[in-house]
Specification:
Length: 465
């Protein structure tokens, strides 16, 4: 195994090993502080992070506002307090010289305000900000104003070119690196573009090389690229290390650090990771952000698939093949569907899926009354955690709505990610994971349920395993 040479990241030489940011509260002050202390770069999530009460228990994020906008304000306040808290914890653990980054999602509700609030409240504690999901043009200026480095997360050279041309070229001094996140393999939300096929993964080397070539065009040959997604051990990436074609490279890990002593996820989640098999983690498109995401197949995802499968197109008037009347809803309103779809609908209703819910695409899905009630409650309780949400139709624009019908085929990501990171409820929540998660069960390092400390894992990674 080649020796891993230190790399200058956010102003200091560190190991080229990064813990990726994981929301909500999955990479936090404790995990990122330990990673940074072990010599790499730790990233805590600034997405609705936890604050604690006097006994050290996470303060439940309960909302009192009557309107979505009022609750959105509460959410921003929770997020800022949580981000500052985690920054302080991380810095206390890591020590003054370690490198710590905060991760935010550009498409999260109030992203800029939260970032300003966290960086203001955590001045001197954070060295960099990583930011993905969407096109974070403004991150450069914000980082430069606070004198910290910024790390856009992209999934193609094209995306970086657009960011550079529009904004980053004005703030090149603070561009600490570019994270290439493999859109087919990385855990969490994925940046697949419309032209990329979720079923046909493309190998990362040519894509990262294209990114480096683009960066060279802009004079960024010495700026590190951080490879994220599907990196399990570095023995498999030896030809990337010290490769002059690629230039300076660091590696980001999202899934492997889930299984460490400092990782804040529940013991049940850790145990589940040790049982996953190839194919258990896959890309789905149910997220209310509109992005693909990579998560574990469980009852939660299966129910979403089934909900979408019980779906038929309808019209309000008889048009073409939609010539068959179907009565739906408590008042038996008539819609028009194909004769075959009417038979499907009647069969689903017979099975108890009696409630027809309209989607923004002029279709109906059929759910049980209980599920229908829960969907409506979740939509009504929305606290505006995204800049725009397909599930509730919340938008942080002036109108407070996307202008589209709320989509019952999606779900409240805030609710489910808060729940999974603060409870043992694994089957009824979204469980993000990278595609390599099945390797926990195969890697002898984890035999007999061994869970390393972050320090052990960082040392292990340096051996190539
Ligand atoms: C549980 C989980 C949550 C994640 N949450 C985020 C997030 O909030 N923001 C983000 O930019 N990336 C997020 N990621 C992606 C990681 O930061 C990292 O880039 C990715 O997991 C690397 O791929 P790997 O899972 O194959 O190691 C998440 C990943 C996981 C597994
Ligand atoms: S409904 Fe959408 S915007 Fe509202 S809290 Fe849930 S995920 Fe966030």
């Amino acid at each position: 195994m080649k020796t891993l040479n230190p790399l200058r990241i956010s102003g200091r030489e560190v190991l080229p090993l990064v813990e990726g940011g994981k929301g909500i509260s999955v990479s936090n002050g404790e995990s990122s502080g330990a990673w940074a202390k072990a010599g790499g770069v730790g990233t805590f999530s600034g997405v609705n992070a936890d604050s604690y009460d006097a006994e050290g228990r996470p303060i439940p994020q309960i909302y009192h506002g009557k309107t979505r906008r009022e609750r959105h304000e509460e959410l921003v306040a929770y997020a800022i307090a949580g981000g500052v808290t985690q920054a302080q914890i991380a810095r206390d653990i890591a020590g003054p010289d370690a490198r710590l980054h905060v991760n935010i999602l550009w498409e999260m509700g109030g992203a800029e305000r939260v970032l300003h609030g966290v960086l203001e409240g955590a001045k001197g504690l954070v060295n960099g900000v990583t930011c993905g999901a969407g096109m974070p043009y403004r991150i450069a200026q914000i980082a430069a104003n606070y004198g910290i480095w910024y790390y856009p997360i992209v999934s193609s050279a094209r995306a970086f070119r657009a960011l550079w041309k529009r904004a980053y070229h004005k703030f090149s001094d603070w561009l600490g690196g570019v994270v290439y996140e493999d859109p087919w393999l990385a855990g969490g939300h994925n940046g697949l573009s419309n032209s990329e096929d979720p079923r046909h993964p493309e190998p990362p080397f040519p894509r990262v090389l294209a990114l480096r070539e683009t960066m060279r065009e802009f004079g960024l040959e010495h700026t590190p690229i951080v490879m994220a997604g599907g990196v399990w051990n570095l023995r498999e990436w030896e030809d990337w290390i010290g490769n002059p074609e690629l230039g300076p490279i660091a590696f980001q890990f999202g899934t492997r650090p889930l299984l460490t002593q400092e990782s804040p996820i529940s013991d049940a989640w850790k145990k589940r990771l040790l049982t996953l098999k190839p194919g258990d983690v896959y890309l789905n498109k149910f997220s209310p952000t509109g992005f693909y995401s990579s998560a574990v197949r469980n009852a939660f995802l299966i129910e979403l698939h089934e909900r979408s499968a019980r779906q038929i197109a309808f019209t309000h008037e008889p048009i073409g093949e939609h010539d068959t009347e179907l009565k739906v809803g408590p008042r038996g309103r008539a819609v028009f569907v194909t004769a075959a779809d009417k038979q499907h609908a009647l069969a689903w209703m017979n099975q108890g899926f009696t409630e027809a819910m309209r989607t923004p695409d002029s279709t109906l899905i059929f759910v049980t009354p209980e599920r229908g009630r829960q969907i409506r409650i979740d939509q009504v309780e929305c606290m505006g955690c995204l800049s725009a949400c397909s599930f509730s139709n919340w938008s942080q624009n002036e109108e407070g709505t996307t202008g589209r019908k709320a989509d019952p085929r999606s779900f409240c990501i805030q609710k489910t990610l808060q729940d999974i990171s603060h409870s043992e409820s694994l089957d009824h929540n979204l469980m993000f994971a990278g595609h390599a998660a099945y390797r926990f069960a195969q890697d002898p390092y984890y035999a007999n349920g061994f869970i390393p400390s972050v320090k052990d894992l960082v040392e292990r990674l340096q051996t190539g395993d």
